[in-house]
Every structure is written in structure tokens, then in C-alpha cells.
Design a protein that fits this description.
alpha/beta, three-stranded mixed sheet, 4 helices, binds zinc ion
Length: 169
């Protein structure tokens, strides 16, 4: 009975899957095929600087298997650089694992908080209150108050001198 080979976990989908040396005619160009699991081994070890044990765990394979995969990948990349070959990234015995999107959500929450703080300052009044609505200013005494959304400044009267207010920039 053939031993089932475990599929290696890959967490990264490269945006570019073809590397071509400049100045080489397509017809005379050789290419080397780097499998997705080999690519992932190089990415974890040489790009993310993980140690082999940690990287092997990420890919759900044993450390010796990871080591073999890494050596094979490095040899192919070296071969491409030394001999001017193109590199195509495709295939392999792998399972693409979706990246959790937690980081993106965290950023979104942070931006929401910032908007909330701005609104709070506006409620306190004073010159700092210029929110998205802007400011109304008394043309006579210079009294300022935040402009209310949907209410033109000219409809408000200055509480000090009773003059109609004007929009301030
Ligand atoms: Zn006034």
C-alpha cells in the first residue's frame, strides 16, 4: 500500500509566479519550476528568518522533510541565477491555507476610534470645536461657535450682541 504523502501547508500566495531574465530570447530560455511548497520553505526560512523546526511546524511537515524541501528550492533558485533560467512557481504537494484577516480588522477599529474622539471635542465648544461642519463667527464681536449640521450660520444670532452669525473658514 503506498504511503499517503501529507500535503504541505502554504500560507502565502505569491503575486508573481514567473521570473524571467532580461535580454534572453524566449525561444532560447530554459526555465526551472519551483513548487509552491518549495517556495514556502524558502519564504519561511530565508525571508521570515524562522528556524527550521518552527517553519516545519507551520507547514505541518517534519523537520527532515522541511530540510529536503528547502535544499531543493535553494538549488533550483541557484540554478536559475547561475544559468540564466526563468523561474516558474507552480504546482507541488501543498494545501493553500487562508491567512486570518485579524490585522486588517484591527486597523479598521482604530480608525473608528479616531473619528469618535473628534466628535467629542466638537461637543465641548470653543475654537477647537471645528469639526466637519466648520465654525460660525459673529462678524461684530468675533464670538465663535461650532456650526450645526444642516443649520446655516446666518440663522443663528450671536448670544453676546444679537448679530446674525457668518460662516468662518
Ligand atoms: Zn457678537
Amino acid at each position: 500500500m503506498p504511503r499517503p504523502t501529507l500535503r504541505r501547508w502554504v500560507r502565502f500566495q505569491p503575486g508573481i509566479t514567473y521570473f524571467k531574465p532580461a535580454g534572453v530570447r524566449l525561444s532560447s530560455m530554459n526555465e526551472t519550476v519551483l513548487a509552491f511548497d518549495e517556495f514556502e520553505a524558502v519564504r519561511l526560512k530565508d525571508y521570515e528568518n524562522m528556524d527550521q523546526i518552527e517553519a516545519a511546524k507551520k507547514m505541518k511537515i517534519s523537520q527532515p522533510t522541511f530540510n529536503r524541501l528547502l535544499k531543493e528550492a535553494r538549488k533550483k533558485i541557484a540554478d536559475a541565477i547561475v544559468n540564466g533560467k526563468a523561474i516558474r512557481i507552480e504546482g507541488g504537494n501543498y494545501k493553500m491555507v487562508q491567512q486570518p484577516m485579524q490585522q486588517g480588522r484591527g486597523l479598521g477599529a482604530g480608525m473608528g476610534l479616531g473619528a469618535g474622539m473628534g466628535a467629542g471635542r466638537g461637543r465641548m465648544g470653543g475654537p477647537l470645536a471645528a469639526g466637519p461642519g466648520g465654525l460660525c463667527k459673529c462678524p461684530k464681536c468675533g464670538y465663535e461657535e461650532p456650526k450645526l449640521r444642516g443649520m446655516p450660520c446666518a440663522q443663528k444670532k450671536c448670544p453676546k450682541c444679537g448679530m446674525p452669525m457668518a460662516r468662518a473658514q
